[in-house]
């Protein structure tokens, strides 16, 4: 078992560490830490809305500390359907989203893009997509629950609305599994 730790730096960068299972060599860690503490580090530019949605789903699929095949399958299906992508387009979008996610300092960068580009109904669909990712492995851990609640809030939904959206997706998921 391992835990995730996010370190936020004054220059706006963040560093995600998994304790208990190495995700980078000590040399890579030192280089990343040095670049974050250096004066030349700059915040990443805002992504386009496709990349922002994909980044949200990539981050959601990783937030519990492991990437599971069901989460990948759900994420890929959602992105293909939402943006009418072929396999090559999906691979590029996932790659762009992964790179953007690695440089992201917080959720606001991509949620603000989504909020500016989408109306309330479209944002609700994005929150439903997020719920599908965090429910893909059959359980919601505390990191996933917290992320979902925070993202829903940043996209303009209060706690009651977040719970209603999550329950609707849970019910739909249970119905689809019993068919």
Task: Describe the protein.
This protein is 65% helix and 7% strand. The protein is mainly alpha-helical and 179 residues long. The protein folds into 2 domains: 3-37, no CATH class; 49-178, TerB-like (Orthogonal Bundle), CATH 1.10.3680. Strand 1 (3-8) and strand 2 form a beta hairpin. The longest helix has 20 residues, at 159-178.
List keywords for this structure.
179 residues; mainly alpha; TerB-like
Give the percentage of residues in beta strands. 5-15%
Low-pLDDT segments, ≥5 res: 21-27, 39-43
Number of domains: 2
The CATH architecture term of the largest domain is Orthogonal Bundle
Separation of termini?
34 Å
Q: What order do the strands of the largest sheet run in, or round the barrel if closed?
A: 1-2
| Arithmetic mean of pLDDT | 80
Which CATH C-level class of the largest domain is it? Mainly Alpha
What does the overall shape look like?
Answer: globular
Topology:
Layout: E1 3-8, E2 14-19, H1 26-37, H2 49-62, H3 69-83, H4 87-103, H5 108-117, H6 120-135, H7 142-154, H8 159-178
Helix pairs in contact: 2-3, 2-4, 2-5, 2-6, 3-6, 6-7, 6-8, 7-8
